[in-house]
Amino acid sequence: MIEQAAPGRVGDVRRRNLSLVLDSIARTGHAKPSRAQLAAGTGLTKAAVSSLVADLVESGLVAEVGLYRDGERGRPGQGLELSSRRGVVGMEINVDYLAVGLVDLGGNLRFSSTVESRNRGMKPDAVMKQLAGLADEAKAAAAAEDIAILGGGLAVPGLVDEKRNVVLSAPNLHWEHEQLEPGALLEGAPLGVTLSNEANSAALGELWYGGGPPDFLYVSGEVGVGGGVIIGSELFRGPGGSAGELGHIVVHPEGPACSCGGAGCLETFAGQEAIFEAAGIPGGSLGRRTELLLAALAAGESRAAHAVHDAGRYLGIALASSARLMDIEAVVLGGHFAVLGEWLRPALLASLERYAPGLLEPESLTVSGLEHSGTLLGAAGQVIRSVIESPFEFLPASKLA
Amino acid sequence: MIEQAAPGRVGDVRRRNLSLVLDSIARTGHAKPSRAQLAAGTGLTKAAVSSLVADLVESGLVAEVGLYRDGERGRPGQGLELSSRRGVVGMEINVDYLAVGLVDLGGNLRFSSTVESRNRGMKPDAVMKQLAGLADEAKAAAAAEDIAILGGGLAVPGLVDEKRNVVLSAPNLHWEHEQLEPGALLEGAPLGVTLSNEANSAALGELWYGGGPPDFLYVSGEVGVGGGVIIGSELFRGPGGSAGELGHIVVHPEGPACSCGGAGCLETFAGQEAIFEAAGIPGGSLGRRTELLLAALAAGESRAAHAVHDAGRYLGIALASSARLMDIEAVVLGGHFAVLGEWLRPALLASLERYAPGLLEPESLTVSGLEHSGTLLGAAGQVIRSVIESPFEFLPASKLA
């Protein structure tokens, strides 16, 4: 039973019901529910829903669209959707690129831009300055499409203290305890900019916008290998807050030294650079090296085949161990693991069969359809979720009394 | 704010408050709270607490004890404690022994008995028959001490379906999909007998009765190596329900075949038998072999030292990987890892330092003080927790109308 408050009284119940209705609209997604459908779905009266929707429309978070439902004629009905004129900027700093994406409240990527950038060993200030240029592109795109930016999410390949905007450790960038000021990237955005881990953001992007199941392990393949664990449609953070560090599972006790200070980590065999090196791909831009690797694989070159085989084998070991420990039954591969897809898969499946027979079904190992935009979507999506959970503060001032 | 219902009305609120008061008594433990202290701690009125306590005393779950508090003179005050005259039987089937323990509601192990038994490859019926003999000993002990048995918990070294009483897989016993009837071990006990995994039970035993912190990884060292993950003072079961299989984390890709069908698992290096074999300890009873191993270590025999060094090294790798994946910052070692304690520790710490420097502090690695009784306490404790959560059904019939 949902408690109902008198319309117009902005109390706790009304705050909660605003979020409930907004969440229902978000979950219904492309179905664009009517007020009557929202009332049926939430247990609220139609009168209460109408009043709540009026506030949400006035706040700019929800938009009405005319649409014909099955078999309807005459005047179109009114469907509701999260506004396409409110947006959040997802941003990503990675080892060899920077990226931004403008995501509207409905989760549509309206604009994106990626530049290659050698960020390893660069000072955070310099990287943030370059990222600010990209953020300006997103702002210009938003202005051109008349989208108001509510906030932003910035993902980095490392452990972060989200509350204090500190990158605790991003070994592949050579950053340790770096204080960032992500809010400066989007001056004036009411929700500011939140910092998050890249693999966690990509996992959430997969959950919310990539059709991910309620429980899965997302594997992020960049220069580093990261992981994001989704359990019960929530990010599993672990007691210390930084769970999912799949790239630093030890897969060979005599393996090479790792950027984390350890040795034999998955990343040393299956990270992007580890594969390029093992495959004998010369240095150059990420795009170029990827092309060369795929060409070498297509040509059946044995060094490339070996490198990808090893990466698949060690990824299989790490997934076997992860599945044993967390009893996770589905895996989504992203980043270069998605790009290498079918080249990687035979060795990965053979490894799982050898080290943990029967534990993970081949069909439970899928490749993300979002590719590199998963991180941007997830970084933005965390801010969109916070809007859905607290729409109250976007109400017109007259309702905030 | 706690809702309060009129005393005597056995509704949902009263059921919840019965549990609340019982839980407060359980948590206060040795302090034996007074009614006034319970009222202060729960937010209920003293009148409500008195009425609830009266029912709990009448049900036999709570007992009053006279005690002098600080500086009090004259007539002793009345303290409350979980009754020592209600008990639960913890039982354990392991690869080379069977054990039972009678645990009173306060968590005191009032009687225990262990027999060596070669259970590997034995039919479940034969093992259960032998265990029934031990359960009878526990019943006799309960009768002698005037303890009423409310139920029992049976722990096995394998994956279980707790609802259906099925051992899904216990490779070290050679059991696969075996239907058990644990309830037959304690005919007439009102709560029956629940089946659980051995390492999970031991982890819960450590949490409830061993002073374990709210977040830790418990490592069970028996013939098999198991794990139990406690997060937020709850057992972490994972999406599939069988999380914590630490023994089957792959620690060496060229390691030996494992009973699980995989290869290179931690258990193949750090399980009890693996250590005995590597140390050159001849076959025999578990107790005898353990004595021989400890004597060989004390004498500085290099094979024994190597075996324990390797076990510590590979345990360190598995803990490094686990801590990376789940971000768990404390580890409690049980079973033979507790027995080997100081012999194992140097190699374990060196391994953690090599593979995950700085991740786990040495002082966060502790040894269980409960040793083998942790599993019995945890198996029984799960039933005790269910009593605390639903004391209602133990109320006298007149209150159940």
Tell me the radius of gyration of chain A: 23 Å
CATH topology group of the largest domain in chain A = Nucleotidyltransferase, domain 5
Q: Mind summarizing the main beta sheet of chain A? A: 5 strands, mixed
Q: How much is the average pLDDT of chain A?
A: 92
Order of helices and strands of chain A: HHHEEEEEHEEEEEHEEEHHHHEHEH
Biggest chain pair contact, residues each? Answer: A-B, 44 and 45 residues
- Describe the oligomeric state of these chains in a short phrase: homodimer
How much helix is in the residues of chain A? 25-40%
Number of domains of chain A: 3
Order of strands, widest sheet of chain A:
5-4-3-6-10
Secondary structure: elements and pairs:
The structure is a homodimer of 401-residue chains.
Chain A: H1 12-28, H2 35-42, H3 46-59, E1 62-67, E2 77-82, E3 86-93, E4 97-104, E5 109-116, H4 124-144, E6 148-156, E7 159-161, E8 166-170, E9 175-179, E10 193-197, H5 198-209, E11 216-221, E12 225-231, E13 234-235, H6 267-270, H7 272-279, H8 286-298, H9 302-326, E14 331-333, H10 336-355, E15 365-367, H11 373-389
Helix pairs in contact in A: 1-3, 2-3, 5-11, 7-9, 9-10
The gist of it:
The structure is a homodimer of 401-residue chains. By secondary structure, the first copy, chain A, is α/β, with parallel strands linked by helices. Chain A contains eleven helices and 15 strands.
